[in-house]
C-alpha cells in the first residue's frame, strides 16, 4: 500500500501538492510554451517497458525489508510511452505494508524529468508477500493511481512481490504493456514473472 502525493504539474505552471496529511504550494517551474493537444486514436495506448528497469527495481526492493516506491520516467513517441529510467524518491514513511513519498523529493524528481524532456510514465512499488496474489493493488494503490490519472498523467503503476511477480494496472485509463528485453515472462495480460528472481 502506498500513499502518493497528489501533484498537478502541467505545462510548467505552479505545482500544487496535497496529501492527506499536508498541503502546500511549490514555486513555479520555468514556463513552457503551450502545446497543441494530440488526438489519440488508439483505444489502448502502448507502454513499452524495459526488462532491465523491472530487474533494477526488483534488486532495490529486495534489499529492503519494507515497502519501497520509485517513479519511472520515459518519453512519448508516436502515441507510445516508454518506461526506461528509475527515479529514486526519499520516503517519509516505509513499513512492511506502507510507503509514503517525501513531498520535496517528489517535486525534485518531476522537475528533473521536465528539465530533460522526460515524463512520469510509471510508478513502481513493492508488496511484502509472495506469489501472484501478492501483486493485486490495494484500495490505497487504486486511489493514488486515480489521483495521477485525474491530474492528467499518462502513467501506469506496477506492484512487485518479493519473489518476482509484477502486475501493471490503471484505474480508468486503458493501456497495453509490452516488455522488451530478457528475463521476463508474460503470464497473462498485465501480469509478468521475473525469471530466476533473486539471482540478479
Task: Provide a descriptive summary of the structure in words.
The structure is a single chain. The protein starts with a strand and ends in a 6-residue tail after the last strand. The protein has a single domain, classed as Cytidine Deaminase, domain 2 (3-Layer(aba) Sandwich). 18% of the residues lie in helices and 37% in strands. It has helices spanning 51-62, 103-115, 139-150, and strands spanning 2-3, 6-8, 15-18, 23-26, 46-50, 69-74, 76-77, 80-83, 85-87, 91-95, 98-101, 119-126, 156-160, 165-169, 176-180, 184-188, 191-194. The chain has a 7-stranded mixed beta sheet with strand order 9-6-12-13-14-17-16. A 4-stranded mixed beta sheet has the order 7-8-5-15. The chain contains 3 helices and 17 strands. The longest helix is centred in the middle third of the chain and has 13 residues, at 103-115. It is globular and about 35 Å long. With 200 residues, the protein is an alpha+beta fold.
Amino acid at each position: 500500500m502506498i500513499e502518493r502525493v497528489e501533484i498537478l504539474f502541467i505545462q510548467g505552471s505552479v505545482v500544487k501538492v496535497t496529501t492527506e496529511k499536508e498541503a502546500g504550494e511549490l514555486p513555479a517551474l520555468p514556463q513552457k510554451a503551450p502545446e497543441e493537444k494530440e488526438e489519440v486514436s488508439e483505444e489502448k495506448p502502448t507502454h513499452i517497458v524495459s526488462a532491465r528497469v523491472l530487474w533494477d527495481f526488483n534488486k532495490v526492493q529486495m534489499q529492503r525489508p519494507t515497502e519501497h516506491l520509485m517513479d519511472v520516467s520515459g518519453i512519448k513517441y508516436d502515441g507510445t510511452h516508454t518506461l526506461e529510467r528509475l527515479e529514486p524518491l526519499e520516503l517519509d514513511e516505509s513499513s512492511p505494508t506502507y510507503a509514503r513519498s517525501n513531498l520535496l523529493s517528489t517535486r525534485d524528481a518531476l522537475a528533473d524529468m521536465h528539465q530533460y524532456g522526460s515524463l512520469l510514465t510509471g510508478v513502481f512499488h513493492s508488496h511484502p508477500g509472495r506469489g501472484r496474489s501478492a501483486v493485486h493493488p490495494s484500495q490505497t494503490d487504486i486511489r493514488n493511481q486515480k489521483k495521477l490519472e485525474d491530474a492528467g498523467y499518462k502513467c501506469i503503476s506496477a506492484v512487485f512481490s518479493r519473489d518476482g511477480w509484477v502486475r501493471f494496472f490503471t484505474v480508468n485509463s486503458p493501456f497495453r504493456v509490452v516488455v522488451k528485453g530478457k528475463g521476463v515472462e508474460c503470464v497473462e495480460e498485465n501480469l509478468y514473472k521475473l525469471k530466476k528472481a533473486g539471482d540478479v
